[in-house]
Amino acid sequence: MGLEEWVVVVLVVGARLLLPFTIPYWPLPGAIACMILDSIDQSIFQQFPDIPLEGYQSYDKSLDIYYLAIMYMATMRNWVNPMAFKMSFFLYYYRLVGVVAFELSQVRAILFIFPNTFEYFWDFVEAVRMRWNTMRMGKWTVILSAAAIWVFIKLPQEYWIHIAQRDMTDAIKELFGVDPTASWSEAISNRPELLAAAIVAVAVVLLVIYWIVTRKAPAGDHGIRLKADPLPPECQGSELYRTARVAEGIFDRALIEKVVLAGLISVIFAQYLLSDDVRSISVLAFVAVFVAVNALVSQWLARRGREWKSVGLELAGMFVVNYAIIVGLQLAQRVLGLIDTRTPLGLSLFFVFLFTVIIVLFDRYRTVLTARGVLAKRADEAA
What we know:
Layout: H1 3-18, H2 27-46, H3 56-78, H4 82-105, H5 109-113, H6 117-129, H7 139-163, H8 168-175, H9 184-190, H10 192-216, H11 238-247, H12 253-273, H13 280-303, H14 311-335, H15 345-382
């Protein structure tokens, strides 16, 4: 690839890695922006023939799982409905297991069996939150909405993509009467009436949604909220995160979930980025040791009074710490004569970035989730 192609790849991949950071604070706008970028990045790459697309399916699924992980962790920070959170937990890990199985087998039908219902269910709950208190959603509202999304939206979509193996952007361009490799400007200029019809159709759908929300749906609990709801005072502040880490045990349920989350995501990326002789079980074992060491270091820092004033500072600080941990573990493996995990510097830095994002956001947002649970329990006891 030439310089121009490298610039395009870096910009697109960089956007797919950084844009999800908006999701915990601007949930629905951030998620929609990620979905749009996910849907158009292949078309962007196709405009540059020298960019190889042989591994696009694995690249796309890896980055999908990455931003879905941030969406899942954002539920720990923002969601107050316990049933909705439990459903998101199940749907995310169900999809995660399916993507791991797909990456190991390359059988597309697996992705049909393990559809990405989580993403649209998450969007549904966040759309409700924009206008209503999500605590009004009962058990059956949560279950039936997830089931409807699964059966009527995701299964047809997964069939179209993975069984019929049709690309949505390619199909749309065919409707415009141009080759899938043609630019969007060529497609629109060939049949501009289709674009006009699409705009009218979208406008009609939006009007119907507006009519339902304003005339048929229950009265809203508040005005439109695009930003995440503010955290209760008891769930804010760097002192909360520090004291929570000091109080918590190291080898607990949270550590197990972090190992599973970081381990399965790492297996997905390893299948795409690392050599074929790196076994998935080796990746899982390495991640398990890394997460445990990270937990020990984090608690040691907390006990020494280390407070992170913001998520950004903690991400930067723990990136340095985690890189040192990675280097130390790789050195120990070579000294002990275990597997040689040496990787190019660029890949090492990427996996450090991946581990840091997952662990830092998980730790911070799980602290909020735990604090909300404690507050709810106290309220029940007082009642």
